[in-house]
Amino acid sequence: MMSDVIRQETTVFFLAIALGAGLSFFYDFLRVLRRMIRHGAVATGIEDLLFWLFGACLLFALMFYGTDGELRGYVLLGTLCGALLYLQTAGPLLIRGGTAMTNYIRRKRKKCFFILKSNRKKGTIKKKP
Asked: What single DSSP character describes residue 40?
């Protein structure tokens, strides 16, 4: 039978793994979003700053509530393991899928604008006065 302390530490470790994977997923989502909507260096910097502040707050909350505010190596190790696990498994799939979706949307958008432009030249679409 496991003691309550070991059970709590195991739970916090698995929560840390989930946190690392979740933060990596969220950052990959930001990367795909940046490919869809072009960002300048300042906007990217602000997004990164907000992401890291959010991630630090979540890690702090996990340590504060999960380990009574004590800095525990297994929490940091779990977060790192979760991030690496995500980046080695689902991360590349999300990036490839997001990039393919972005390219598909761009092609359709260009085709739509081309059709509208050619119809305007033919006179089937009239400009508003």
From this structure: -
What is the CB neighbour count within 10 angstroms for residue 123? 7
Coil/strand/helix, residue 129: coil
The position carrying tokens 């092609």 is: 107
Output the six-digit token pair for 108. Answer: 């359709």
Contact 37, 98 (CB under 8 A): no
d(CA 119, CA 97): 33
- The amino acid that residue 43 corresponds to is A
Q: What is the pLDDT of residue 34?
A: 86
- Encoded tokens for 64: 């504060």
In terms of pTM, does the model score above 0.90?
no
30 within 8 A of 51, measured Cβ to Cβ? yes
| Per-residue pLDDT tens digits for 41-74 | 999 999 999 999 999 999 999 999 998 888 899 9
Token pair belonging to 5:
């302390």
Listing DSSP states for 44-84 in one string gives HHHHHHHHHHHHHHHHHHHHHHHSTT---HHHHHHHHHHHH
